[in-house]
Amino acid sequence: MKQQIIAEKASKDYNKVLEIDYKAAKAGIKLDKTAMRRLDKIISTCFKQLRRKVILNNIKAIMLIERVNKKLKYLGVVQQLLLESKKKRKL
Prior knowledge:
Helix content: over 70%
Number of helices: 3
Mean pLDDT: 65
Number of strands: 0
Shape: elongated
Oligomer: single chain
């Protein structure tokens, strides 16, 4: 049951990353490549471990998801900057 919740959270986080990346690309701003690579690695390892059911203790999974969330906060800042730049263009 807990693994299912973790998997759902990881997939939501991954979709959010894709959405932010798409919006940034649409606005013509490229996100830091190293940040995106690290983010992809974190997410893929999270999914791999969930698939293999290697996660015996949920602490490891929670730590992985926390690292994903930290990256998402960084990308959230980028998204906020994009929104602000769009507002300035409209004015």
